[in-house]
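Researcher: I've got a protein sequence and the SMILES for coenzyme A. Could you write out the 3D structure of the bound complex as C-alpha cells? I'd like something to compare against our soaking experiments later this week.
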Amino acid sequence: MKTVADDIVVIGAGGFGRETLDVIEAVNADAGAPRWRVLGVVDDAPAAIHLERLAARGYRHLGGVDAAERVLSTAFVVVAIGAPAVRARIAAHLEATGATSATLVHPRAVLGSEVTVGVGSVVCAGVQVSTNVRLGRRVHLNPGAIVGHDTVLGDDVSVNPGAVLSGEVRVSERTLVGAGAVVLQGLRVGADAVIGAAACVTRDVADGVVVKGVPAR
Ligand SMILES: CC(C)(COP(=O)(O)OP(=O)(O)OC[C@H]1O[C@@H](n2cnc3c(N)ncnc32)[C@H](O)[C@@H]1OP(=O)(O)O)[C@@H](O)C(=O)NCCC(=O)NCCS
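Model: Sure. Here is the predicted complex with coenzyme A in place.
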C-alpha cells in the first residue's frame, strides 16, 4: 500500500479548481493516509475573489503557468479549468513541458463495469457512470452528472452538473454539455459544440454548434 503522498498542483483558481480540491480532499480522507499533497494552485490571471476563497481554505497561489514551470515539472498536475478549449490549450502546453497529469475520481462517484477514465480527468461527487463507458483525457464530470451505458466522451469534454447522457451517446472533443441538459440515446454530438443548460437534445449535433431549448435547436 502506498504510504507517501504525491505532490499535485491544481491548474485553475476558479470554481472548478476548488471543486477539484474537494475531490482531492475526499480521496485523501477516503484513503486514510494522504494520497496527494497539494502544493498550490496555478492560474495566469486569477480573480481576487477566487484567491480569497482559496486562501480561506489554506491553499496558495503559485503564480501563472510559466512562473510555476519548475514545480510543474516535478509534481502531478490536474487542469481544472471548466472551459474545454482553454483546458485543452493549457494541457497541450503543459504536456510539451513534460508535466504528468493526475486522474481524480471522487470516492462518492459510482463507476460501473468496463469503464475507462482518461488521464487527467476529474470525476466529482454524485456522478454516476454506467457500464462500458470510455472517458477521454481530461474529461470533467461535474457533480451529479449521469453518463449512460456504452457512451464515449472525447478529450476535454465537460459534462456540467446534473446533465444526463443517455446510453450509446458519442460526444467529441472539447464539447460542453450544460447543466441539467439531456442527450437522448444513440446520438452523436460533434467537437467544440455547446449544449445549453436544461436542453433536451433529440438529434445529432454538428461540430462547433450551440444548441439550446427543448427540443434543442
Ligand atoms: C446556451 C448558452 C451556451 C448560450 O450562451 P450565450 O450565447 O452567451 O447566450 P446569452 O446569455 O447571450 O443568451 C442568448 C439568448 O438565449 C437564451 N438562453 C441562454 N441560455 C439558454 C438556455 N440554456 N436555454 C434556453 N435559452 C437560453 C437567453 O435567454 C437569450 O434569449 P433572448 O435573446 O430571447 O434574450 C448558455 O446560456 C448555456 O446554457 N451554457 C451552459 C451553462 C452551464 O451549464 N452552466 C453551468 C456551469 S457549472
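Model: The CA atoms of residues 118 and 137 lie 4 Å apart. The mean pLDDT is 96.
Researcher: Great, I'll pass this along to the crystallography team.
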